[in-house]
Each structure stands twice: as C-alpha cells, then as structure tokens.
TrEMBL record:
Keywords: Repeat. One of its GO terms (biological process) is proteasome-mediated ubiquitin-dependent protein catabolic process. PROSITE patterns: NHL. GO terms for molecular function: ubiquitin protein ligase activity. It comes from the Eukaryota. NHL repeats lie at residues 198-241. Signal peptide: none annotated. InterPro entries: 6-blade_b-propeller_TolB-like, NHL_repeat, TRIM-NHL_E3_ligases. The lineage of its organism: Eukaryota, Metazoa, Spiralia, Lophotrochozoa, Mollusca. This is Uncharacterized protein LOC111110944.
Length: 288
C-alpha cells in the first residue's frame, strides 16, 4: 500500500549518463561517520572523537568545535539560520552551537535517547529516539524544545522502524515526506509528514554483491532520494515514490557512510575508512 505524499513538481533536470568525480576533502577522521551541508558552502563532518570539523568546499578547515562533555557527536544538522545542532548520546541531549556558545535544546525525559536527527523546511527538528530497553523506536517532531508529534506505528499498527539502538539517519524531502535509512531493517523507510507509511525500499536486484545496507539518506532538488549502500560501495537513486532510477557506482567509492547534496545538486559522500568527503556530479548543468 502506498500513501500519497504532498504534491511537488520539480523542474526537469536531466541526469548525466555517467556521473563523475569533482573533488575530495581529507577530514583526518578515521572513521568518518557523517557530513552535512549548509547553503553558504560550508560542510560539517563528524567522526568518533569529540570534535566537529567545518570545511569550505575547497577543502580548507574553517573551524573545529570541541564537544565539552568529551563525547563524540552522534549526529549533526543545521537549522535554517545556520546554527549547528549535534546529539550527545551519552548525555541524552540535543545541543545547539550559537555564537561560539553551546546550549542544550532538548533533553528527553524518561527512557528515550536521541540517536539521529534532521532539520526541516519549517525549522522544526525531527529526532529518532531509542528506548533504553531497545523495544521501541520513535520519530519525534519538535518545534524548538517542544514535542509536537510522535510517530511509531504504521496504518496497520505495525512498527515503522526496527527496534534496538541502531543508526537511522533521516532527512525531509521537498514534498515534506520523511526519509529514514534504517540500517538494521536494511530498508529506506518513507513516511508522510502526518506519519503514514508511504513505502519501504529494500534494494534493487543485482546479480552480484552483498545485501543492501543503507547508512544515510538525502534528497535533491528533483525530490529524488539518494541512499548509501555501504557494503556494495555505491549510491542508489530513487524517485519520490520509491521507484529505482539508477546507481552511482563508477566514482571509486569505498564504504560510503554519510551523504548530502550541495546547492548545485552535487553529491557529497563521506567514506568511512578513508576519511574523505567525495564530491560527485550526477546531473547535467543544462535544464530542459
């Protein structure tokens, strides 16, 4: 069963027949876990140490932010105004970096622990919550520090997401759908803004390779969905309704862990073991 998402008609922007590598940035993280992009051409990277590194697209280090607790950031995101957010999982908090000061924005009560998050076009925050006993995963929408929506079950009363303390990176599409890379479920799960299940993508059949293992997910100006396939060293591209469009598997990717797109629809891929962020062009620059 599919549930319709919000209507969104993008410009017809053709994909290149063969995507190509543009540049890379060596972050020094080993492992490198994630990358986020802000529209002033700043990218933010995280690894397994208590530092967040910010680079420009030319590869120059602009700023290093140390996490006061000494914990590594579980996830990072940008608000619409450019403020940086990060999750301190051991501290069970979502924190905001503003004017070189760090403040706690969200600290859930009870057994819930924030694990992953993204900012929305309405400047709200979507946070994946684990319970301490690992029995339930909850997707929570916040306005500021106020909880306004909780999503756990589909229309038939079944869990939307896998249970357990696993990575479930997420993003909001331009049609307001919420796209979740559920690593343990081996699926990209897409729900509407109202929390209704739209579809689950579990990979596209190939004659070779390892089982589909999505770690991260992003979307582009065409409302297409892109996800990393960690074990098969490639990227899957889907349309907004979950139909497979193509792979990006020709740009010498190794263990792609995180990804995002820049303002020109170039793909930024964080390689876990090399510590590099690779920039890839996959759209033609000429609009039809």
């Amino acid at each position: 069963m599919q549930v319709a998402g919000a209507a969104f008609l993008p410009h017809n922007k053709p994909m290149l027949e063969i995507p190509y590598f543009l540049s890379d940035i060596s972050t020094g993280f080993s492992p490198l876990y994630g990358v986020s992009y802000f529209d002033n051409e700043t990218i933010c990277t995280r690894g397994d140490v208590c530092i967040i590194k910010m680079y420009n697209l030319q590869g120059s280090l602009m700023e290093s932010i140390k996490i006061p607790s000494g914990n590594f950031p579980q996830d990072i995101a940008f608000k619409q105004n450019g403020d940086l957010l990060y999750i301190d999982r051991r501290d069970k908090s979502v924190n905001i970096v503003r004017n070189a000061q760090i403040q706690t924005l969200i600290r859930p009560m009870g057994p819930r622990q924030p694990h992953n998050m993204c900012s929305t076009s309405a400047d709200e925050l979507l946070v994946m919550m684990d319970s301490k006993n690992g029995e339930e995963t909850e997707l929570v929408r916040y306005s500021g520090s106020t909880e306004i929506q909780s999503m756990t079950k589909d229309q038939r009363g079944r869990p939307l997401f896998s249970s357990g303390m696993y990575t479930r990176l997420l993003t909001e599409n331009r049609n307001l759908d919420i796209c979740v890379a559920d690593w343990f479920a081996r699926a990209v799960i897409v729900v509407s803004a109202a929390g209704e299940l739209r579809f689950r993508y579990t990979g596209f059949p190939r004659d070779f390779g390892e089982p589909f293992q999505p770690f991260d997910v992003t979307t582009d100006s065409q409302v297409n969905i892109l996800t990393t396939d960690f074990r098969n060293h490639c990227i899957h591209i889907l349309d907004q309704n979950g139909n497979f469009l193509r792979y990006i598997d020709n740009c010498d990717l190794h263990d792609p862990r995180g990804l995002c797109v820049d303002c020109a629809d170039n793909l930024l891929v964080a390689e876990r073991n090399t510590g590099k962020v690779k920039r890839i062009r996959y759209y033609d620059e000429i609009l039809n």
